[in-house]
Amino acid sequence: MKCPFCSGKDNKVVDSRVSKDSTVIRRRRQCLDCGQRFTTYERVEALETYVIKKDGSREVFDRNKIKSGMLKALHKRPVPVTEVDEFLDALESSFQEQGLREIAVSKLGEAVMEKLRQLDGVAYVRFASVYREFRDVREFMDELEEVLAARKESSG
């Protein structure tokens, strides 16, 4: 493991912890060359899942791509990043449990939107406006009205 500070290759593990769901091991390491500490994560390499895009092309599922989109939607919203990580962990686990080798981008997008709807209405609308490619303000307002109606039902 190469040190991110000095690129030294000699280090020692100072602490190891297993995640709540036992799928990831977090290791604190200390570089023997510069003394800096850094963290690594170890997880089982899963079978690759492919996303089938709207045009029919396939690309390898990229957790970071989805995380980036969700974090953009959640920018300056009161939702911890750990919520996003837990969702992505559960999503990837469901792929493995179901033996999914391919998933349509539409199913993936709907799953992300449903999670954002649960986490934060503003983030949901932000994501939906990009994902659904609203063409005008009316489409945007229709989506907002749905969110407001759902909020009203759940609180009243």
How would you summarize the topology of this molecule?
Elements: E1 11-18, E2 24-31, E3 37-43, E4 50-52, E5 58-60, H1 63-73, H2 81-98, E6 102-104, H3 105-119, H4 121-131, H5 137-155
Parallel strand pairs: 4-6
Antiparallel strand pairs: 1-2, 2-3, 4-5
Helix pairs in contact: 1-2, 1-4, 3-4, 4-5
Textual characterization of the structure:
There is one protein chain. With 156 residues, the chain is of the alpha+beta class. The chain has 2 domains: 33 residues; 106 residues, no CATH class. It is 47% helix and 21% strand. The protein is built from 5 helices and 6 strands; from the N terminus they run E-E-E-E-E-H-H-E-H-H-H. Strands 1-2-3 form a 3-stranded antiparallel beta sheet, with no helix packed on it. Strands 5-4-6 form a 3-stranded mixed beta sheet. A hairpin with a 5-residue loop joins strand 4 and strand 5. The longest helix has 19 residues. The termini are far apart. The mean pLDDT is 88.
Q: What is the number of independent domains?
A: 2
Q: Main β-sheet: number of strands, strand sense, barrel status?
A: 3 strands, antiparallel
Total strand count, please? 6
Helix percentage: 40-55%
Mean pLDDT: 88
Apparent shape: elongated
- Beta percentage is 15-25%
Helix-strand category: alpha+beta
Question: Radius of gyration from the CA trace?
Answer: 20 Å
Number of helices: 5
**N- to C-terminal separation?**
55 Å
Low-confidence stretches: none
Short description:
With 156 residues, the chain is an alpha+beta fold. Helix content is 47%, strand content 21%. The protein has helices at 63-73, 81-98, 105-119, 121-131, 137-155; strands at 11-18, 24-31, 37-43, 50-52, 58-60, 102-104.
